[in-house]
Specification:
It comes from Photobacterium lutimaris. It is a single chain. The chain is 33% helix and 26% strand. It has helices at residues 33-43, 61-64, 67-74, 90-110, 187-200, 217-226, 234-248, and strands at residues 2-7, 12-18, 21-24, 51-56, 77-81, 128-130, 135-136, 139-146, 155-159, 164-168, 172-174, 177-179, 204-207, 211-213. It is built from seven helices and 14 strands. The longest helix is centred in the middle third of the chain and has 21 residues, at 90-110. The strands form three sheets. It has a six-stranded mixed sheet, covered by helices on one side. The chain has a six-stranded mixed sheet with strand order 7-8-9-10-13-14, with no helix packed on it. A two-stranded antiparallel sheet has the order 11-12. It has one domain: Ribonuclease Z/Hydroxyacylglutathione hydrolase-like (Metallo-beta-lactamase, Chain A). The N and C termini lie far apart (60 Å). It is of the alpha/beta class.
């Protein structure tokens, strides 16, 4: 196994290389498609059809945005968490999808990236649905872990042989500290997910935003201390800002 970390549009891309095929640990941004395909063909000297499986850890633009297009271009399969329904459902879901796209564009501006089209289908159509602890189809060395909290369908991907875990957005690095992501829809599940990762005693964690890290016990404790006890979501943030604005008048 070779694990390749590639600089994506607004997040790290993790591509796992085997002789028999390539595994993409997350669904990336739409803007990452040429970056990834060029890496496969130019750096690895392999046909893009060698991409066999893309795992979508959750439905945000930098984790699901390229999945459908990659399947069309390469013939790969898509795997996601075995959770009923779609994340972006109904009118609220449509509004949240647009909000998440705006947030992704805002992050890109902060990173001084050229503006790109990040639009993607809000409804995922996976080929495989993964339960907690299930091995990835075609790549049995990797295990799917249910690590909900950020959303209702977050996955982490564990490789026991190396002790590495890709945890997507379970934590993010800001000013040298590891903190919870935004949003956290399910605080109780989120803390359970952090404790689940701690219990694995992994050798390293692979972050979508922060690279490969080896957290200390103090890092984990800081993260738990900063974990919200009530949901931190888009709508709650808007309501809080309105309340502050009215209280100041």
């Amino acid at each position: 196994m070779k694990l390749h970390q590639i600089d994506g549009y607004i997040q790290s891309i993790y591509l796992v290389e085997y002789r028999y095929g390539l595994l993409l640990l997350d669904g990336c941004c739409r803007a990452d498609i040429p970056i990834l395909l060029n890496f496969i063909s130019d750096k690895l000297n392999r046909p893009v059809k060698d991409l066999k499986l893309v795992v979508v850890t959750h439905m945000h633009p930098d984790h699901a945005g390229a999945a459908h297009r990659l399947r069309k271009l390469t013939g790969c399969y898509i795997a996601a968490a075995n959770v009923k329904g779609q994340w972006y459902q109904g009118l609220d879901g449509a509004l949240m999808h647009w909000t998440d796209l705006l947030l992704a564009n805002w992050v890109a501006r902060r990173m001084k990236k050229t503006r790109q089209n990040l639009w993607y289908d809000a409804k995922l159509k996976p080929d495989y649905l993964l339960d907690d602890q299930e091995r990835l189809p075609g790549f049995p060395e990797w295990h799917a872990l249910s690590t909900q909290g950020h959303t209702d369908r977050d996955l982490s991907l564990y490789h026991p042989n190396s002790g590495q875990v890709y945890i997507a957005d379970l934590m993010v690095r800001v000013k040298g500290r590891y903190i919870p992501p935004f949003p956290v829809f399910y605080p109780k599940r989120y803390r359970q997910s952090i404790n689940k990762i701690i219990a694995l005693s992994p050798k390293s964690l692979l972050l979508a935003h922060g690279g490969e890290i080896v957290p200390t016990p103090e890092d984990y404790q800081y993260l738990l201390d900063k974990s919200p006890t009530t949901p931190t979501t888009h709508w709650r943030s808007v309501k809080t800002k309105f309340k502050r604005a009215f209280s100041a008048t």
